[in-house]
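[User]
Protein folding is very new to me. Any chance you could explain this protein sequence and its structure tokens? I have pasted everything here:
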Amino acid sequence: NINTMKAYSQILLLFIFMSCLFISCSNDKDLPEENKTYTFHSIMWKLEEGDKQEVIEDHRSISIHNNVDEPAIITNKSEDYIKDYSHFHNSEDAELLTQLMGEDYTVSIPSEISLLSSDYVYYSGKEAPLRIGEKVELEPSTKVKESTTLPPHSKLTTNVTIYQNKITATYRIRLVADDDSFDYKDIHGKWTGVFLRNMESSSVVEEIK
């Protein structure tokens, strides 16, 4: 009977359509890992063996000449030659890190080690661009400014001792899949930061003959 054949045809077409739809959905869920995209979610910090804070010392000598007949006001600003810096070292998870490259993320970094422990914690404080494998200069967290009047035809020699805190810590970056907030990847790596702690200076003025 013709009506029965039409009914069977419609059922068959419906079955084929539903099968194709199921296969399509299954394929979407089974997409290869490399086809997924992840974005930055958060960063946490901890101390592992070898992580530490140490004081590094640097010595510099700066000479300035005043060759005119009028006194000169010489201002010595630490930020002119001392910079803080942040360095996120390359991680073993290089492929996942490429998801971050080119993105302008800014994260908090630990400028003091006292708030870190052997467990991962969030840290709120000084901020730095998240650029993996790149040493980034930052505005110094501490600035020192000194002014001196330099007499005519004289030379000012300033000897400066710079003390900086160098911090090494471990970071964990969490990336979350764009299509599923429960699908995430954690990336671990080392970070180094250097911050001005203090500076001492002594100056000598000599007449230029």
In short: The CA atoms of residues 59 and 161 lie 5 Å apart. The two ends are 123 Å apart (CA to CA).
